[in-house]
């Protein structure tokens, strides 16, 4: 664009004062002046940038005012809100991963509505610690000597590496150089922690001898990363925790030097989910029993609790973690501790936990029961949607565990399928997400919309889906 045209365009941008005089803006008397001025400035600034980048946006004082007003009002509207998950992905990271059990929700309410025993011990009537609320439970359920929970499992991995391996070496297999959702990559976390990564083996095969040859005076630990979100099949080999334990013991005997065996287990199963057969994830207890010194895992994946990273293992090691400055940096807040303690307590009921913890319940619910719910959704929707708009049917589908757990496992499920005679799957999907009071997340499959009943939590959610669909067909 010629510089003079650009200059002319820039001159058409109104002054902030001018926009503030418009009726759109003066009507916002309940919103703090500074907020509104900021919104107007941002709006003008964004147009200025477009022009400088060669764009020719339409400049209108009224349009700027309208957009600034919309943004100012939107600030007061909830951004983090409930949604209905009809995607069939159970541990859906974008939708908040685990749904908490009612017991956990109640515990959070109790802990936050007033003061709490967060760091107060009623027996000694003196200062207590945050760990007291969950540590004994974690130990009882996993067989660990001690436990510490931090902000999330990424923080746990970072903390373990930095406390035990900073300035030294940590050995990890090339088959376990994983990336979990964008920013969490083993090599990057390793670098940030100050540990030197020693890669061994190849992508598909790592042998015990590879670890053996990599051991040196500099070795602080052997890190094993559970390949959460993928599986290698075919010509592959990995070394078990039990074998790494033996190797570390032999090394200690020969050299007098201790090498830690640490597993980043990711999903953190507390119960062995037999229904998944060979796909079932190893439990935390199994990893410890196999000889890991430390194991860490997420609180909101297979465990079904709040976001947290739980580290379990030998008491002397956990003590070092507890006294590290990072323990303070990464510590849990009271809401999380309340939810974690209550969720863990449900595991004391053994098989009862399968029913009471929503994430686990959705994972193991049998297909016939999901089919019943899908049928109910079909009936409700059929009643509400006038004929001629769509073909509704019950279809078999496959749910996913999500959250990097059970990646290869097809979980048999049932869904309501909507074939569009009027409107389209894309338009309906957009309507359900953007225009419904509780956004509904469905799945587009070819030209149809699928509503997987496995992740629909209640009769109320079935009603909301049926109502949302009916509302969409009123617009076409
Ligand atoms: C999910 C996962 C993490 C990250 O855990 P967050 O709790 O999401 O921080 C780390 N390692 C593995 C193997 C995982 O599966």
Description:
The chain is of the alpha/beta class and 476 residues long. The protein is 43% helix and 18% strand. The radius of gyration is 27 Å and the shape is globular. A seven-stranded mixed beta sheet has the order 5-13-12-11-10-6-9, sandwiched between helices. It has helices at 3-12, 16-20, 23-26, 33-52, 61-75, 102-113, 135-142, 153-165, 186-193, 208-214, 241-255, 284-289, 315-322, 325-329, 334-346, 352-356, 358-364, 367-384, 425-434, 459-475, and strands at 84-85, 89-91, 120-121, 126-127, 146-150, 169-173, 179-180, 184-185, 196-200, 219-225, 260-266, 294-298, 309-313, 390-402, 411-420, 440-441, 443-445, 448-452. Pyridoxal-5'-phosphate is lined by residues 152-154, 157, 180, 184, 225-226, 228, 264, 266-267, 298, 309, 404.
Q: What's the number of helices?
A: 20
Q: Strand sequence of the main sheet, in spatial order?
A: 5-13-12-11-10-6-9
> Which molecules are bound in this entry?
pyridoxal-5'-phosphate
Report the helical percentage.
40-55%
The main β sheet shows up as: 7 strands, mixed
**Could you tell me the radius of gyration in angstroms?**
27 Å
Shape: globular
Kindly, what is the distance between the CA atoms of the first and last residues, rounded to a whole number of angstroms? 42 Å
Tell me the β content. Answer: 15-25%
